Hints:
Layout lengths: L2 H8 L3 E4 L2 E4 L2 H4 L6 H14 L7 E5 L4 H11 L3 E4 L10 E6 L4 E6 L7 E9 L3 H11 L4 E11 L9 E9 L2 E7 L2
Parallel strand pairs: 3-4, 3-7, 7-8, 8-9
Antiparallel strand pairs: 1-2, 5-6, 9-10
Helix pairs in contact: 1-3, 3-4
Amino acid sequence: MLEVLKRSLEICPIVQRGEYSYFIHPITDGVPLVEPNLLRDVACALFKALDLKDVNKIVVSEAMGIHIGTVLSLMTDIPYTIVRKREYKLPGEVIIGQTTGYSKGTLYLNSVYEGDRIAFIDDVISTGGTIRALLPAIESTGAEVADLCFVINRGNPDIGRAYKSLVTIDVDKDGVHVLDSYF
Ligand SMILES: O=P(O)(O)OC[C@H]1O[C@H](OP(=O)(O)OP(=O)(O)O)[C@H](O)[C@@H]1O
Ligand code: HPA
């Protein structure tokens, strides 16, 4: 398990976004091509790694949480909602400031309510800026984040609580180096 993911990371290209060495990978970018065997490898590992007991909703963030949220939802029959980069002004919408290693923006959380037990998944954690902003926003609704898992962990940031990641990597100008994996 995770052999396909690890191999694909070791060959992925790097581009500079200012000071930030950005790796380009099918799971985090949708390019190069998302091969079904890679998606299957990731989906099965997420399903196995996450504790989904009594979880009633999956939360993912736009854009690149969406394909992994879709496959996990199909596998588990648990519905998911997407934290969007677009405002809806629905009642209860939570507005979140997001800062990553290369961008700043605003996210909008909907469809999460008091009493929900949430599994949060995302393609990558890097500086941790996104999840550090998202966690209190989800919890402000009265929902509990029961488990969280990232497909790729670069940087292993402290987010104030435990989290899971399928693979841990280091990125430099020469490429991606896989340091550790969950399975
Ligand atoms: O740990 P951080 O430094 O916050 O980085 C992680 C975030 O960066 C990416 O999202 P991005 O906002 O680039 O959007 P995308 O999914 O559309 O690529 C990724 O999907 C995470 O949500
Ligand atoms: O280096 C990266 N590559 C792809 N997605 C990302 N999201 C945060 N950092 C990265």
